[in-house]
Amino acid sequence: MTDLTNLSLVGLVNGIKNKDFSSEEVTKSFIKNAENSDKLNTYITKCFDEALVSAKNFDKKNKPKGLLPGIPIAVKDMFCTKDVKTTAGSKILNNFLPTYESTVTNKLWMEGAFLLGKLNCDEFAMGSSNETSFFGNVTNPFGDKIVPGGSSGGSASALAANLTPATIGTDTGGSIRQPASFTGTVGLKPTYGRCSRWGIVAFASSLDQAGPLTKTVEDCALLLQAMTGYDPKDSTSINIKANNFSSNLTEKVKNIIIGIPKEYRVENMPIEIDKLWKKGIDFLKDAGAVIKDISLPNTMYALPTYYIVAPAEASSNLARYDGVKYGHRSKGSNLIEMYENTRSEGFGDEVKRRILIGTYVLSSGYYDAYYLKAQKVRKLIKEDFDRSFKNVDAILTPSTPSSAFKMGEKKDDPVSMYLNDIFTVPVNLAGLPAISIPSGYDKNNLPLGLQLIGKPFDEQMILNLSLALQKRMNFKRNIKAWWK
Amino acid sequence: MVEVMLENKFDYFIKGETNKWEVIIGLEVHAQVLSKSKLFSSSSTKFGADPNTQVSLVDSALPGMLPVINQFCIEQSIKTGLGLKAKINLHSVFDRKNYFYADLPQGYQISQYKNPIVGEGEVILDMPYGSKKIGIERLHLEQDAGKSIHDMDPENTFVDLNRSGIALMEIVSKPDLRSPEEVNAYVKKLRSIMRYLATCDGNMQEGSLRADVNVSVRKVGDKKYGTRCEIKNVNSIKFMQMAIEHEAKRQVKLLEEGKAVDQETRLFDAKKNITKSMRLKEEAHDYRYFPDPDLLPLKIDESLIDKLKKTLPELPDEKKDRFIKNYNISAYEANILVSEKEISDYYEEVIKHADKKLAANWIMGDLFAVLNRKNISIVNSPISAKNLSILINLISSGEISGRIAKEVFEIMIEKDNNPKEIVVSKGLKQQSDPKELEKIITEILTKNKEKVAQYRNGKEKLYGFFVGQVMKSSGGRANPKLVNEILKSKLKQECSKISR
Questions:
Q1: What is the pTM of this model?
Q2: Which residue of the set A76, A91, A189, A215 is catalytic?
Q3: Which residue of B has its CA nearest to A339?
Q4: Pairing of strands B290-291, B274-280
Q5: Which of A144, B186, B201, B252 shows the smallest number of beta carbons within 10 Å?
Q6: Where are the domains of chain B?
Q7: B316 has a chain A CB within 8 A of its CB
């Protein structure tokens, strides 16, 4: 019998619909893989027993309904899940049991999916290597001691290692696209406001978006369709008619205009990445698209802007973790001491660093020079894209300036770590949709991705272009299950 | 109509050892928005529920929870702004005010910092020395915090989040107030306007209205403001007045001793009647305000403002002008009658069928005395407006005297009966039969021959004695006007007897 875990999400959905196999069989296969995957450390919480019950219940029903009938899905541990521990990768939420379900996960369950488990991630999604999690590093299935990227590292690794058929993550500065690129998977960050943020542990409210991580572009379209939609409980969610991303998916991209921004050609970028970018351009030309050089002049300011805006919001968003109401509480002889001990013990170094930066840039006397200035630059960056999108339909760039690196390599050098997000961060600042698709390998046989950036709410365009690229790339995830 | 304040009639100054000092006061009033649910959640705002029973996931700041603005609270603020004749800002922004406290679940309060929903407006005060305009700087919306309870346990503090997230309007005045009396008038007027609008119930006992009071002093004649102190969270008008008086004196003493006033936040201790330092300027929190990224800027449509304008009731100032014009009562009377909407409603109900001037006198005199004594509001008046109007008509028509009316009124307090019935059943109807009265008067004069003789000899003071005897004899029911007429003519006759 074929290994069901090798199938795509669309393949599994069709198989279950056609009764080629049962939901229980599918679920058991993934559980079996996941149970032998401790070396990868992708799961924080396993819901295998409950998932099997759901699968059996599903199989008893006659007519499978919804976009994701009988599909077990593990999700990043940033999504609050009812009665299932939700940690955000932090000690401070190590004992937190939500009484509510996030809008996005709830949408998946409404489409027939059920929860397989909660996946490891950087603490409060702050990190680019999944090394900041309280629950330990996640390993990239492409190699022992290789990071999976971050912050959705657990999600990307679990997907690439066939421990979940598909997954969802959150992307504040590249947290879906960078790990997708590092693990040879597809990751999409939707337009800001496309997915509800209700019930997702907040990192930086004006940047956070949930999105799918999948094996194929088709899977991505399907999962995106399942998770999007207006939510009156999120004031920043946009009331726009939902697209049928799957049925509108086409590789016909003739005469579509693709912008190539010269500012993304950075110094010291490995030659393979440049080559890959050229390959992408050639493939899109081959598909009939038109290539156009463009300029996004404020790109160089994106990273410093991001590292003011995101920590500023985070410093305020994380103030609620004070030991008073829920989560970890340390002892103290008075309120202030209790706060200090709780937050000193509950948060890790990277989170503390960002809280300090955020507090600093919002302080009186520094606000104008940092936060306010950053907001102005953010507007300029958005205007760069607005201007370009008058002439092009999408923008093609590399996803990351390097392939996955070794654990510990950048841990003590935050700036070098932050540089990893150089191509993904501008997209979050501008609120645009972008996708990373696997495109090839570097000299160490580690995967690399290309990023397509779209106009606001034009996820369909970048999905279609991705499909055209996918067909031509013929990318194979060469992973041996060495961790078993 | 604003009269210039007559300086010579205004005499609130602090007299120090060496100088006369003027007191400059500005108020930040926190008024709870009258609304069923909270500013950013659907939890109830009902007062007095068991602790932590009106708390949603949003109010307790659980991970991933997001605020959604309560449209009704926006409308309430716009209405209040219109009532203050203020500019409504079509674009305003919600900001986060960051600080840590156990009863602040989010670790920040959602408030409005640089762009409030309501801009400059005004409140007119009626002071004994004329009308005075007090400028309003701004009105903004913000969340209330929860409540920390420190005295239930020797070791622990308890937190009640029922209040957490309730909508408050912070109404900031310009530093235009000059005395505790003006503060009293200002808070009452503000409360009156909001009660007319039904945007705040103004209930100070339940904390629906509280104020931070900014006080500074300067020598009479000086133009520059002195350094101010802010007295936090004062929850009664009386305490505000006490706190201002004490604080002004404290500052004067410091300045006259050649010391400086420190800009600081102070607390008022009502038991000791002093203010004490809470924190110095240097210790002030850095609130790190920034726009709340969970909320979009608040856009208000001009059409909404127009719609709300049409729903505004007649406000106290307009009502007062109408009362003076239409009901022929004094500005002083009108001012009292419109101070609470319920009083003006009661008055207008009474005068549907009764004399306007008499009605004003009875309400402001006898009725208010009863309400005060019983400590109840006019809504619960023991005497209905209808019965009061009947009573007043009995007086106007001469059926009973003012004195009897007071007797009937006392009976009405106990049981709100129709005064006509009381008059009949108690036999209190005025005696207006001239023949009957003449008989009584003749009797009295005959009984008191000596006094009549004294009167005849010029002791005219005795006239009152004869009236008193007649009233006594008639059980107070004699028509005083007729008694006067008959008695005068009778006494005249007595006098002419002699001269003849």
A1: 0.91
A2: A76
A3: B100
A4: unpaired
A5: A144
A6: 7-309, 314-425, 434-499
A7: no
pLDDT of A421-474, one tens digit each?
A: 999 999 999 999 999 999 999 999 999 999 999 999 999 999 999 999 999 999
Do the domain assignments include residue A283? no
Contact check, Cβ <8 Å, B62/A326: yes
Give the residue carrying structure tokens 């009396």: B181
CB contact under 8 A, B67 and A200: no
Q: How many residues does chain B have?
A: 500
ipTM of the complex: 0.96
- Catalytic entry in A29, A175, A246, A466: A175
Q: Angle, nearest 10°, between helix axes A373-388 and A302-317?
A: 120
Q: How many domains does chain A have?
A: 1
More confident residue, B127 or A166: A166
Compute the half-sphere exposure of residue B489: CA atoms within 13 Å on the CB side of its CA: 8
Is residue A379 situated within a structural domain?
Answer: no
Mutate to test the interface with B, among A235, A328, A341 (most CBs of B within 10 A): A235
pLDDT the model gives residue B3: 39
In a domain? residue A300: no
* Tens-digit pLDDT profile for residues A385-417: 999 999 999 999 999 999 999 999 988 888 888
Query: In this structure, what token pair is assigned to residue B58?
Result: 């949003």
How close A190 gets to chain B, by Cα (Å)? 18
Annotated active-site residue A151? The verdict is: yes
Residue A345 lies in a domain: no
What's A223's domain CATH number? 3.90.1300.10
Q: Give chain A's contact residues with B (Cβ, < 8 Å).
A: 80, 86, 88, 93, 96, 98-100, 102, 197-202, 204-206, 232-236, 312-313, 315-316, 318-320, 322, 324-326, 335, 339, 359, 362-364, 367, 371
Q: What is the pLDDT of residues B90-130, one digit of tens each?
A: 999 999 999 999 999 999 999 999 999 999 999 999 898 88
- Per-residue pLDDT, averaged over A270-274, amounts to 92
Which among B55, B68, B57 has a CA at the least distance from the CA of B94?
B68
> CA-CA distance, A120 to A388, in Å (whole number)?
37
Closest chain B residue by Cα to residue A360: B288
Q: How much is the pLDDT for B5? A: 44
Rounded Cα distance, B207 and B46, in Å: 12
A76 is catalytic: yes
What's the domain range around A248? 4-259+390-473
CATH fold group of domain B434-499: Arc Repressor Mutant, subunit A (1.10.10)
